[in-house]
Amino acid sequence: MRNLLNFIIRYSTWFVFTFYVLLSCILLSKRDDYHASVMFSSANAVSGGVYRTASSVTSYFNLRRINERLQESNAGLENEILNLRNEIAELKAISRDSTRMQIEDDDRFDYALASVINNSTRHPRNYFTINRGTLDGVQQGMGVVDQSGIVGIVNVAGPHTARVISILNETQHFSVKLKDTPYVGSLSWKGGDPGVAYMEEVPRHAKFHVGDTVVTSGYSTTFPYGINVGTVMNRVRMTDDNFYILKIRLASDFKTLSTVRVIRDFYKAELDSLSSFDVNS
Question: Kindly report the CA angle at 156 between 99 and 110, in degrees rounded to 5?
């Protein structure tokens, strides 16, 4: 308190001078409109300058916050780009895996992507429906596969949809062989477990091991050679001692069947006509 009093006493002259200046300005502005307008204009100019300076200072300090927000936004965009790149790479890998079915002649075979819209696995004769038909090039007799292996053959094709005979159909047989061997057999489903089928008519002298891969034989226009079918689980005895029956774990999961590919063989009509000619002759 004493320091404050000493300060006021020391600069009392300046305080008195400032007080009288302000008082004279007030009296002058009240008595004379011209001086009042000049004073207000000057005050507005001074206040405007002060506001502009304050705004500039505030904007300058806000630049850091704005920059941080921009950096956060850029980081988010970069993360999205990175995630999209990873997803694209994964989709390309899935696509490569899905087409590893060794469709050897690119000029002969093509496929149409389709979604399964109805499916059954509990009946002796199972079918599923896909959302592609004749308008998409799908025809009766075309083979159908998913990302893991074969799943069926087109039975009836409409303009927009088609019905497929599933592998899980006791009336259907597929020509298959033990991979990297000359041993061919007939694959069929016996009911029960939707993950198990049987390879019949395997020659007794054929050598195999549990876990060996079974693929399509390529002896028909339905499936090209080498499409995955499943793996050998064990051997089942037959009454005919000249042949084996092999129990096969199917590669495809029919309970979760969702996206499939219909294989289109551009030589099919020609080959079928030749087969028909041989039969008729």
Answer: 25
Phi-psi region of 137 (alpha: psi -120 to 50; beta: other; left: phi over 0): left
For the chain (length 281 residues), average pLDDT per consecutive 10?
68 75 65 54 54 58 59 48 54 58 57 89 95 92 90 95 96 93 93 94 88 90 88 81 89 91 78 61 43
Q: How far is CA 195 from the centre of its chain?
A: 26
Place of tokens 């630049």: 63
The rounded radius of gyration (Å) of the Cα atoms in the chain is 43
Tokens of 7: 């300060």
pTM of full prediction above 0.70:
no
Element of type H or E holding 109: strand 109-119
Give the per-residue SS3 of 85-99. HHHHHHHHHHHHHHC
Q: Between β-strands 174-178 and 228-236, what pairing exists: parallel, antiparallel or unpaired?
A: unpaired
Nearest to 218 by CA among 172, 271, 254: 271
| Closest by CA position to 42, among listed 56, 28, 63, 59 | 28
Cβ–Cβ contacts within 10 Å for residue 226, how many? 19
Give, rounded to a whole angstrom, the gap between the first and last alpha carbons of the chain: 129
